[in-house]
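re: ur question from the group chat, yeah i did fold both. here u go
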Amino acid sequence: MVGSHGKKPIWWTRLKLNSDIDQRSLKNHIVDMKNLENIRGSRVYGRRQGKPLRKASQDRLDKYFPKLNIFVKPTEMIDPFVLFDEKPDDIWLEIGFGKGEHLVAQAIAHPNVGFIGCEPFLNGVSGLIDHIDREKIENVRFFMDDARLLMDALPDRSLSRAFILFPDPWRKKRHYKRRVVSPGNVAVLSRLLKDDAELRIATDHHDYCRWILARLLENNDFDWKNDHPDDWHKRPADWPETRYEIKALKAGRKSAYMTFVRKRRP
């Protein structure tokens, strides 16, 4: 986001985008991020950059970013199926993909599905691109900004599945409004998901787990898929692990795996 003194964000200066991209439109896109301040309680917060990228990763970022990044103009609606070289059968969305391990594993397992990942963290996007380059994956696109901008630009019933895996719990009470699982974001996901589509959420934070269950169960559009009391403590076989889950297990923290199903509309 452009600062109050007109300075460009760090990742803008590091991208060194190829000359064939419309840089003016990208600058306008960044400036328009200020409008996010009007989305109270429904923003998707996340840090923007960590350690400087290695040259090889920076080169891959420069190569793939113009093709794989999704640009959203204000008030513009997007047809997610046209984002891919070959039209996919379904669209799946992951909000906050970390460095892309889960997203890539799902993309490999489901080559006929178009995957969209949202992640504002430059180093995370770089990690995803490293996976994409190494595995030669064609069915992944990403949005490197606040996920709500993209979500608000997608049409109704456009998603067949969505993932929110190990999001920041924002432990302090004054930061609860920053939690990605909020009434506003749940309402938007309800609009985007097709009937019977799954919303998968995982966390290793007990208080946030209770919060997530409360937010989803207070929304009448979702059912909690829980056939046995131990179901939500066992990661399903088709649910690849993430680096955050591994970190939690090493620290002795148990994770909760929750699956919610979008109810059929009348």
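okk and heres the other one u asked abt
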Amino acid sequence: MLAGKKPFPRKQNEPSGRVKNRISFRRIGRSIPFLACLSEKEFREIEEVAIQKQFAKNEMILCEDETLDFFYFVSAGKIKVVKTSSEGKEHIIAVRGQGDFFGEMGMLDGKTAPAAVIAMEPCEVALISKSDFNRLLMNNEQVLREMIIMLAKRLREAWFDLSILRKTSAENRVRAYLDFLGKQFGVQDSRGILINLRMTHKELADCTCLSRETVSRNILKLVKSDEILVLPGKFILLRCEWRSKCETGGGLNP
């Protein structure tokens, strides 16, 4: 059983989540390359059909093997993409934040969702139905070009995920994943790079295929070496010492 709550009962093909009044899709849509390339008229057509929904923390947004009838955009908050093994072990294969998206594979190949998607915190998600996606986007050559670039980026992320799992040292797995989070969600300040994402030791363990206890030991080790600082609310700060060590290649080898 997945860690997220079960989806709310709903009619067939209707996405879960509580419907809220439609708000402007513009605030996130124009930051997404394959929507940013649309003309104003084309973008307004997307705005008209976008459905905005809210999800609570740990609420299931999309079930593994569910038929993909919608393309999803994260308007606010963060979600995790989770794959469950035959033994019931969960592995977080991706974390997505505001302005990101998911469900693109089903839109393109017509197959079911390869993994489940769960809200990591209260979040808002905008949805576009498959029929609207095909009608408004799939005939636009520039949109298709941007989608190819998007898929190449996702493939590189998958390769990076595999490179983490190939590391035999638990410490280097934790280091590599924290460095990845710093690049994806990091905010620079005078002390270093603040990872603007709350993650528990259990979630970090699920991302790196380690036990929670192992992750906790390595986080403590990094704190004691003054490379990271754990702030209230489970935020992690990568201190200046961290960046200098990464730039020299220290700690990120197999």
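fwiw on the second one: The longest helix spans residues 141-165. Confidence is low (pLDDT under 50) at residues 1-12, 18-23, 249-254. idk if thats what u expected
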